[in-house]
Amino acid sequence: MKKADIGLVGLAVMGENLVLNMERNGFTVCVFNRSVDKVDNFINGRAKGKNILGASSLSELIEQLEKPRKVMLMVKAGKPVDDFIEQLIPLLEPGDIIIDGGNSNFPDSTERMNYVESKGLHFIGTGVSGGEEGALNGPSIMPGGSASAWSAVKEIFQKIAAKTDDGSPCCQWVGTGGSGHFAKMVHNGIEYGDMQLICEAYHLMRDGLGMSADEMHEVFAEWNKKELDSYLIEITAHILAYKDSDGSPLVDKILDTAGQKGTGKWTVNASLDEGIPLTLIAEAVFSRCLSAQKNQRVAASKELAGPDMKISADKISFVESVRNALYASKIISYAQGFALMHSASKTFGWNLEYGNIALIWRGGCIIRSAFLTDIKNAFENNPDLDNLMLDNVFKDILNEKQTDLRKICAAAFVAGIPVPAMASALSYFDGYRCENLPANLLQAQRDFFGAHMYERLDRPRGEFFHTNWTGAGGTTASTTYNA
Question: What is the DSSP letter of 230?
Answer without folding.
Answer: B
